[in-house]
Amino acid sequence: MTAQTLSTETVRAQSLHAKPKASKVLSQADLKLREKKLKKHVAAIHTDGQLSLLQRKLSNVLLLNAYDQLLTKPEHEIDEKTLCVMLGYDSNDRAPLKSALKALAAVQTEWDILDDDGGEIEWGVASLLSHAVLSKGRCRYGYAPTLAEKLYNPAIDASINMKVPRRFRSGNALALYENCYRFKNTGSTGWWDIQLFRRLLGIGDSDYYKSFKHLNAKIIKPVVKEINKSSDIKITPEFKKQGRSISEIRFVIEPNEQLPLMDIDDDDAVKGTSAYQRLITLGIAHKLAQQWIVTHGESYVTEKLDYAGQQRKQGKIRGSVSGFVNAAINKDYKTEVAAEKKAKQVSSAKEIAQLNAEKAQSAKIKREKKELTEKAGRAVSWLEAQDLSQKHSIMESFKKTLDKDYLVADLAKHGLASPLIAGRFADYIFDNHSAQN
After folding, report:
1. Nearest Cα to 68, choosing from 97, 29, 101, 104?
2. 179 and 110 fall within a common domain
3. How far is 289 from 296, CA to CA, in rounded Å?
4. Structure pTM?
5. Residue 317 within any structural domain of the chain
6. Same domain (yes/no): 268, 255
7. What are the DSSP calls for 154-194, one per residue?
8. Predicted confidence (pLDDT) per residue in 255-300, tens digit
9. pLDDT band, residue 3 (cuts 50/70/90)
10. Are the CB atoms for 85 and 222 separated by under 8 Å?
């Protein structure tokens, strides 16, 4: 089997790419689970990184759910709908969940425990999940005892806050972030052999990335950019050469001063909104209310609350109002007035976009026409500078490129001043006479 990473990201109810569609309101216990920090054994961090982003997220949620009882229970379980909410997709679609669980249960996980200088202390391999079962709305799963002991050991760990990994859109960025985070207090990862670095990101078997040019352009630069933009640390790569080749890499690590601008947990600001107070009155948990307001904005949440109030007065809500609000927010319910207003805005936006596109196209045509005229002028000027016999030779050669009778006729009638001929002649001169390049 292909060696895979054992990765343990902490995940909130929001997906990395989309708003969760599931309408389940999480229980207090589930919310508490979602807010925990996950202790990540370095064996879980320093591994090959070939898990997909969904598999990586799923492994994180499962470990987070099981962590406190890893050594006392052979099997753990979590509500299936809650799991889907935390992964960020509709709980009615079980295919992605089944596929990800199957992958986690099938792969072998190879790990390296590294010291603060990047040296290897221990190597090991185990199946990531010993089993996984979906039954009666619950997901049951387990870990091999050896792996459970390794995961639970809190003596060597890095604690990653759940708010950060959910921002990543790239599995490579998340893998490198996890490998760098435990060194944030020492300021550097220490030197890694370039082959080990490729393994950590799950590209050790790729011939394409054996070329440092490709590795740097397609992996290192974009991954570093994403981490520095989206996380609580900033990393800077440094390289060491052996001869003319890059042989080692390390990352200098420092706090990201932009984190306060990205942090969504501004309790005082959120609690001061009327939308928050209305949600709490309906029995919505603090963290869920906070998440809705930060994710969608106060005006959006207020619109849904007002809509729920209207539907309640008209007796159109069956079940709890809080459940209706949850669905209204996640599925973007709209009143008829709001829908009409939105339609007008969309129509207006399309008209503006079409007008801008037409203006841009017109400007492009004018620019290209001007460039063609200038190019044709330079070509004719160059021709006029040649002697008579050379002019004749050039024109005869150019005529042979005209594959249509009407073009030959147009050249005979209007010469190089013809709009049909000028561009073709300019291209001919610039393509065939180096003096013009």
Report:
1. 29
2. no
3. 11
4. 0.42
5. yes
6. no
7. -SSEEEE-TTTGGG---HHHHHHHHHHHTTTTTTB---EEH
8. 886 554 344 344 555 677 888 889 888 888 776 777 777 667 788 8
9. very low
10. no
